[in-house]
């Protein structure tokens, strides 16, 4: 029965792929009229400066070069995004488009972007790209869409959110050189105006679309996020490694100190949710409030509560972490009282990082990246710091300009001034599950979500952040499961 089901699934997948290919070849006579060679393709690995991620990106580059040798073709250009310049905004892609145009705008056909966990079958990718006339403007990828308008996309397309498609970066995405060249000129002629970079894949798609003047994303069935072990993976030009990598035994829970930011008005509403869900997985935890409540217990740090920002409270937590008031640990996790988080999964992820490096880990946002700007870890999804990072931060003398300044953004400015990288993980989430595309969450083992607005937070925790085996696993399937930031 199981074998029959697998055969049926493969047959359906093959049929869907053939149908997709047929529609692609039928529209606009897209079939390429000449061979496409590997040295016409520029690969951009969306890499990061942290040593773990840089190593993974180098391994991905080496694999692409090995495949070129196997195919007996001249190797492609493979660039690591984090190493192209000292501009902090490079990870947001748009500021560096003029460099791509100037460097490859005459002798290349495609720029393909991929993440460090994206496996590429080079021969299959060439067979896929050759269907498209590279002299035209093309924006190719695996499409995602919103089922409801969401704050992380600024409630775009509120009447029909599903009408707008944006690429799943994990499946790789590609721009033809004519589109690269035009966008590069646009970037040079019109400085990027967006203040915040929140969900890069959606914002890039909006920039390319230009309110209908530019191309929409074209769906390419061969760009996949299935694991390599999937029975239908042979149909794919790209597959995906688990986002929760296996780096060895998880770090001990006794080596993570957890700080929960709360205030008196939420002691009865939010703190009980923490106690019902993830608190039991923590060895060392303190609740920091504007009121010392021994029943929880909470600690009053002497910083008055503020309606927004909480910078004073966060810096007081950093000072306490390096003092003798708390046990000495390598890692500090700071969360809000309405953050839902899986500590076992965090323990597994942290094994990939060295605590003697200044690691600052979470969901990365950007501010003013088109004009220099800086990156920061958005606080609601959880901010993780190595002891080395906290020591560097406090030693720099960086401080809040007011108690109600936005703590995550002030920390981002401090890190930028110190030249310390913000390390991004897509497994941390500033919003609720309902605020993300179902297809995006399907290939994740999420570590956190944020906000209790219009949801049952306990149910969300058990649905998304608890493993059936009681431990983190990259094989657990997810179902679909919405938030003010």
UniProtKB/TrEMBL annotation:
Topology in membrane: Single-pass membrane protein; Single-pass type II membrane protein
One term of GO molecular function: glycosyltransferase activity
Broad class of where this protein is predominantly found: membrane
Subcellular location: Endomembrane system; Membrane
Domain Fringe-like glycosyltransferase: 250-455
Pfam families: Fringe
Source taxon at top rank: Eukaryota
InterPro entries, alphabetized: Fringe-like_glycosylTrfase
Extent of the signal sequence: 1-15
GO CC, one annotated term: membrane
Keywords: Glycosyltransferase, Membrane, Signal, Signal-anchor, Transferase, Transmembrane, Transmembrane helix
Gene3D superfamilies: 3.90.550.50
Similarity comment: family membership: Belongs to the glycosyltransferase 31 family.
Protein name: Fringe-like glycosyltransferase domain-containing protein
Upper taxonomic lineage: Eukaryota, Metazoa, Chordata, Craniata, Vertebrata
């Amino acid at each position: 029965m199981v074998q029959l089901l697998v055969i049926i699934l493969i047959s359906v997948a093959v049929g869907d792929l053939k149908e997709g290919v047929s529609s692609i070849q039928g529209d606009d006579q897209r079939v390429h009229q000449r061979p496409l060679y590997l040295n016409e393709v520029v690969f951009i690995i969306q890499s990061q400066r942290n040593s773990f991620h840089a190593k993974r990106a180098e391994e991905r580059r080496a694999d692409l070069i090995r495949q070129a040798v196997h195919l007996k073709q001249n190797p492609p250009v493979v660039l690591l995004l984090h190493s192209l310049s000292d501009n902090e905004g490079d990870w947001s892609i748009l500021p560096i488009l003029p460099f791509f145009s100037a460097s490859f705008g005459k002798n290349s056909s495609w720029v393909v972007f991929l993440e460090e966990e994206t496996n590429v079958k080079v021969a299959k990718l060439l067979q896929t790209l050759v269907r498209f006339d590279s002299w035209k403007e093309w924006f190719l990828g695996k499409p995602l869409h919103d089922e409801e308008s969401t704050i992380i996309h600024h409630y775009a397309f509120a009447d029909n959110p599903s009408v707008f498609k944006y690429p799943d970066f994990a499946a790789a995405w590609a721009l033809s050189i004519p589109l690269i060249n035009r966008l590069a000129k646009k970037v040079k002629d019109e400085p990027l105006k967006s203040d915040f970079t929140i969900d890069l894949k959606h914002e890039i798609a909006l920039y390319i679309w230009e309110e209908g003047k530019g191309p929409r994303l074209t769906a390419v069935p061969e760009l996949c996020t299935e694991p390599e072990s999937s029975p239908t993976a042979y149909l794919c030009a790209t597959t995906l490694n688990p986002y929760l990598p296996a780096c060895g035994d998880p770090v001990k829970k006794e080596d993570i100190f957890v700080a929960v930011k709360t205030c008196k008005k939420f002691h009865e509403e939010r703190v009980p949710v923490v106690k019902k869900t993830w608190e039991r997985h923590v060895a060392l935890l303190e609740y920091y409030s504007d009121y010392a409540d021994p029943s929880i217990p909470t600690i009053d740090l002497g910083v008055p509560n503020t309606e927004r920002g909480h910078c004073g409270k966060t810096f007081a937590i950093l000072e306490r972490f390096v003092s003798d008031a708390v046990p000495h640990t390598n890692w500090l996790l700071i969360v809000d009282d309405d953050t839902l988080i899986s500590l076992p999964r965090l323990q597994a992820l942290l094994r990939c990082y060295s605590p003697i490096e200044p690691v600052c880990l979470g969901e990365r946002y950007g501010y003013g990246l088109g004009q220099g700007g800086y990156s920061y870890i958005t606080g609601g999804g959880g901010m993780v710091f190595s002891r080395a990072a906290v020591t560097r931060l406090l030693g720099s003398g960086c401080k809040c300009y007011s108690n109600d300044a936005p703590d995550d953004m002030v920390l981002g400015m401090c890190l930028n001034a110190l030249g310390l990288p913000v390390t991004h993980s897509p497994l941390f989430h500033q919003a609720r599950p309902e605020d993300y595309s179902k297809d995006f969450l399907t290939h994740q083992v999420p570590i956190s979500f944020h906000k209790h607005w219009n949801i049952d937070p306990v149910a969300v925790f058990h649905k998304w952040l608890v493993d059936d085996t009681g431990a983190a696993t990259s094989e657990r399937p997810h179902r679909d499961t919405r938030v003010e930031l």
